[in-house]
Amino acid sequence: MAKEKKSALKENKGVSISEITDPSTIKVLKKKRRSEINTEALVTSILNKDITALSRAITLVESKNPKHLEKANTIIKACLPYANKSIRIGITGVPGVGKSTFIETFGKHLTSKGKRIAVLAIDPSSSLTKGSILGDKTRMDDLVKDDNAFIRPSASGDSLGGVARKTREAIILCEAAGFDVIIIETVGVGQSETTVHSMVDFFLLLKLAGAGDELQGIKRGIIEMADAIAINKADGDNLKHAKLAKVEFNRALHLYPEKSSDWQPKVTICSALKNEGIDAIWELILDYIAITSKNNHFNAKRNEQNKFWLIQTIEEQLKSTFFNRPEVKTALENQLQLIKDNKTTPFAAADYLLSLEI
Ligand SMILES: Nc1nc2c(ncn2[C@@H]2O[C@H](COP(=O)(O)OP(=O)(O)O)[C@@H](O)[C@H]2O)c(=O)[nH]1
Ligand SMILES: [Mg+2]
After folding, report:
1. Domain range holding 260?
2. How big is the chain by its Cα radius of gyration, in Å?
3. What Pfam families does the entry give (predicted)?
4. pLDDT at 212
5. 134 and 156 part of one domain
6. Residue 56: what pLDDT?
7. Is the CB of 95 inside a 6 Å radius of any atom of ligand 1?
8. What Cα–Cα distance (Å) separates residue 176 from each residue in 48, 181, 278?
9. Of ligand 1's atoms, which has the minimum distance to the CA of residue 94?
10. Which pLDDT score, from 0 to 100, does residue 63 have?
11. What is the longest distance spanned by two Cα atoms in the chain?
12. In whole angstroms, what separates CA 309 from the centre of its chain?
């Protein structure tokens, strides 16, 4: 390479002089620009069924950053008038029962009928398992690729209450983005079934046929919550067991008092793997919607659910505000000691603590 001659006439390459040259300041500015989210544009995109926008909005809902939450609230408010138009289905069952396989087959069935479906998950343990959906997304291979399906792993690392709130808000966003069917999956850790039940229109319990003691090992209350029980893996040698299990579950269901919805919970058998009995489950859900829409139970249930979440949220916030007050923390310790020393009772101590002025 020819050496450049030093000359007084040589002109150096120009540098544009910007007012801010400090690299760290530039970094901050760039970051800020990136995080400036135009909520109005995002809402418009969501209403135009833009999946990327939907994902971004859900990320905002899940964020712990107060600024993001503020934006999330604005977006949700704007989306609310367009929400409420889907069928919300909760799906639960023990690990290995075939939830992911079922959602894949069921989801494909729905998209083949021109429906758009969104799949969300509630899994309070997801920080460990990386989310029930994400963990076995491979089982939803086809659905993941389907343009009419949207799959979102559960929000992680939070309390069940926190996850529930985020999921409720994600439902609203998905509905605004025009999804007709929203599936909420849960593995049923702790109270998560009750949580899912309180945010869906239809609750489906997936079961396996066992050795005749079908009702053993089922959590109390689960059967009561179910609008349908589907005995999965009803294929091959398992088919006859599944049919027997169906009889037994039917008998058990009749022991429960009739529901206010006029809906008698149904028991059905299916094979998620072989795609058998899946269409029947969809028909059954449509029946349910028809009946409960007619007798207005559908709307009444949603109103009940809204009331439940309102009260629940207030309770949680009051509780955390109370317990996080420094003077309460100190007084609580003192009262605990007094209880230990037999100088007061838990009830008297509670009265005292609750009467503390800020
Ligand atoms: N034979 C049979 N196997 C199934 C069926 N559904 C799921 N499986 C298998 O059961 C295993 C667990 O399924 P998966 O969908 O991951 O269950 P999940 O843990 O409830 O999500 C996998 O090996 C599936 O291939 C079915 O209908 N019939
Ligand atoms: Mg799974």
Report:
1. 83-295
2. 27
3. MeaB
4. 53
5. yes
6. 94
7. yes
8. 9, 12, 27
9. 20
10. 87
11. 101
12. 14
Please give the Cα distance from 215 to 227 (Å, whole number): 16
What is the spatial distance between Cα 130 and Cα 153, in angstroms, rounded to a whole number?
8
In CATH, what number is assigned to the domain containing residue 42? 1.20.5.170
Instruction: State the CATH number of the domain containing residue 108.
Output: 3.40.50.300
Say if residues 86 and 192 touch (Cβ distance below 8 Å): no
Q: Choose among 229, 182, 205, 197: nearest CA to 91.
A: 205
The average confidence (pLDDT) of the chain is: 85
Residue 319 structure tokens? 């509780």
φ, ψ for residue 102, nearest 5 deg? -65, -45
More confident residue, 292 or 163: 292
Looking up tokens 């207030």 gives: 314
How many residues are recorded in the chain?
A: 358
* Beta-bridge partners for 232: 208
pLDDT tens string 28-82: 766 665 556 799 999 999 999 999 999 999 999 988 888 888 999 999 999 999 9
- Inside any domain, residue 29: no
pTM recorded for the entire structure = 0.83
Q: Is 272 in the pocket of ligand 1 (CB under 6 A)?
A: yes
**What amino acid occupies position 220?**
R
Give the residue, out of 92, 99, 100, 101, with the most ligand 1 atoms within 8 A of its beta carbon, to mutate for a pocket test. 101
